[in-house]
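call fold(seq) -> tokens
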Amino acid sequence: MTNTSATPEMAITALADPTRRAIMNALREGPLAVSALANDLPVTRPAVSQHLRVLSDAGLLTVTPHGTRRLYSIAPDGIAAIRSYLDSLWTDALDAFAVHATALAGDDDDTQSDP
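ret:
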């Protein structure tokens, strides 16, 4: 289950915390339970659970019940939303650069045509 009301801004905010980034890096290997994640982090298991909640609320994780445990994994849709958002920023930056470069080139043409 993932949070469908999450926004890219929520995801970026969630990833601002180094512990949450460490959790995401650990989950790159595949789904893990809270206990497995807590073993490799310098925070308590309840703290890991809180971080998982923030990441889940931001749409970055899926949670799958597996017996008495819950397995956490990276939500591809959440990552795709961040990537799309960042791609749009990059596209806007490139467009602004192109407009500026064109304007500069136009200024150079005007200067060179004056006798």
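The chain has one domain: 8-113.
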